[in-house]
Amino acid sequence: MSEPCPSLYPRPVVFTGADIAQIDVDAAIERVTPRIHRTPLLHSLLLDQRVGGRVWLKAESFQRAGSFKSRGAFNAALFGLEGGDQRGLLAISSGNHGQAVALAAAELGLAAAVVMGAKSSPVKRAAIRAYGAEVISEGVTLANREEVAEELASRRGLRLIHPHDDPQVISGQATVGWELAADLQSRGVTDPLVLVPLGGGGLLSGVALALHRFLPRATVVGVEPEAGNDGLLSLQSGSRVTLPGEVDTVADGAATMRLGSLCWEVIKREIENILTVSDAQIGEACWWLWSRCKLVVEPTGALAVAAALSRIGSSPPPEIVCILSGGNCLPGQIAELVGVGPEMA
Predict the structure, then answer these.
(1) pLDDT tens across 200-220, in order?
(2) In this structure, which topology does domain 17-67+167-338 adopt according to CATH?
(3) At 323, phi and psi to the nearest 5?
(4) Contact 303/231 with Cβ under 8 angstroms?
């Protein structure tokens, strides 16, 4: 089933080429570089041996607020301030985007509120409050959270920073691809397979646009959970698909029912393939990252490694990049996922 995403902006629901033209990677690089960490590109020999190709890990789990979302949040917040918009900020989030917006607001002297589902991660809710933002979660579900945010933005006069469907957010996320291109080229890597976690599509859109400009021989592929395969279905059908109900997966940051409207416009032009992985495969990836690479990565952040471990096939490409999109999770959640690893079962 295909349907438009409810708009929270004073403009048409259907994004156009003019909206895509607003995605400005160069401006985003200049804005956010002083505000964020340049995250490392790591390498694991053990993953090389397991996958059959050289595996690189872009560790956005080391980013400020624990995920890549700080890039888009800071870029959008600063863009607004440059235009004289002093309103408080509002976010819709499963957790990571909310933390990023709360951090940006605190650093820029703005109020912030975050609308997130009542079943969202308690560690992410706690982090949002620690940055000084208000959390609105009572009665909020994945299905109604945009409606709740729209009403709240109107009533309080807040400025919404959407988690993915915003040219400035996508521009910020594209700085991941810009950094990655430079780091890969410095290592002599010119034509890698780049695996990118996919939820609403902001990260995949931004990385694809940046890499196709700065590292044009790279192949960019999205990875989403099997239960939330709206991206794959959209690519297969040629139109944006909305899943019929809430998505049940350990990868809470990718539990989306549909791609963002603007993200879809980019993805359908720039992306040829999307892979899906099961929760069990995500758990195996978390186990590898924790036990072999000594990295704490949340389930959503492990989507790319899950694909590398299970879906590349018998002839993997020589260079594989996995973007680790975040590391915000409870110790108990990781313990449950990695308690019985593939070599211990």
Answers:
(1) 999 999 999 999 999 999 999
(2) Rossmann fold (3.40.50)
(3) -85, 120
(4) no
Locate 106 and state its tokens: 């605190």
Counting Cα atoms < 13 Å in the Cβ hemisphere of 266 gives: 32
Average pLDDT, the chain: 89
The span from the CA of 205 to the CA of 219, in Å, is 13
Report how far residue 264's alpha carbon sits from residue 83's, in angstroms, rounded to the nearest whole number. 27
Q: What is the DSSP string of 164-202?
A: SSSHHHHHHHHHHHHHHHHHHHHTT--S-EEEEE-SSSH
What kind of fold does domain 69-161 have according to CATH?
A: Rossmann fold (3.40.50)
Instruction: Name the nearest CA neighbour of 210 among 186, 235, 179, 183.
Output: 179
d(CA 252, CA 173): 19
pTM value is 0.90
Does residue 246 contact residue 297 with C-beta atoms inside 8 Å?
A: no
Sign of CA dihedral 105, 33, 219, 272: positive
147 closest CA partner among 242, 124, 241, 139: 139
338 contacts: CB under 8 Å, gap ≥ 6: 283, 286, 287, 290, 291
Q: Domain locations in the chain?
A: 17-67+167-338, 69-161
Q: Do domains 17-67+167-338 and 69-161 have the same CATH topology?
A: yes
Give catalytic residue positions: 69, 94, 224, 228, 230, 325
d(CA 290, CA 296): 6
